[in-house]
Amino acid sequence: MMDPLKRLRLIKYAILQTTIGPSLICDLFVFIYFIRHWRKEILRKPQNHVIACLLTASFIQKITDSPFTLYYLRWGIVVQETYMFCAIWNWLHYSLTCVNLHLLTWCCIERHLFIFHSQMMKKKYCLTLFHYIPLITCSLYTPFFYIRYIFFPPKCVNVWYYTIILCVAPCYIYTDKFLNSFDWLFHYGMPILIIIFVNVFLFCRIISQKVKRQQRIQWNRQKRMIIQLVFISLLYLIFMAPGVIVGVIQILWTRDF
Description:
Layout: H1 4-36, H2 38-43, H3 49-75, H4 83-116, H5 124-151, H6 172-175, H7 177-212, H8 219-252
Helix pairs in contact: 1-3, 3-4, 4-5, 4-7, 4-8, 7-8
């Protein structure tokens, strides 16, 4: 009889294997569309920049982190049983996951600016301050954070186990309660809450504006941005929120949850 843990691992492998291929194909089609309509969709529409960054970060994760995960789920052991491989895999996984989450968080906030303050966002200094700087920060902050604490942990030494996914986890998660709490709450918990709050607030604001008619907003032109944001946010929340909630509960209350 097959071990229940092995059966669960193979089920996860089958699900990931059957979904990642179509996902990559969809990514390629979107890349081709952006390349063919570069001037129209990228140069003239800065609101699409964050979507392009999200797509790029997600694509990089699928071709780097995901193959390592697939190999482990299939065989029950990591691709290379070395210290450096486990450190790099952890860095890729945590960095790219956070980059995607933080880009989506900023996308939610930025949509408010492009929908309700479109004239302001046409000014160069506003576009730099509220568009380009946040994009760069969201893309670079967590990769540098995890380089520091995965490759050069200040208070511990990483011990990797090659028969566990991600070789377990960076040592600071187990030895530095403050840093672990900061990591989960600031990098995962807070972005999830912001995404939920901002989307609810956006919906309420749209209803309010439509009822009061205090502002002339071209709703037909903005409808695409709103639908796009809600769809992407729901996808991320469905797949990421449960894990984040469990992690936060383990940090704040009990590790046995």
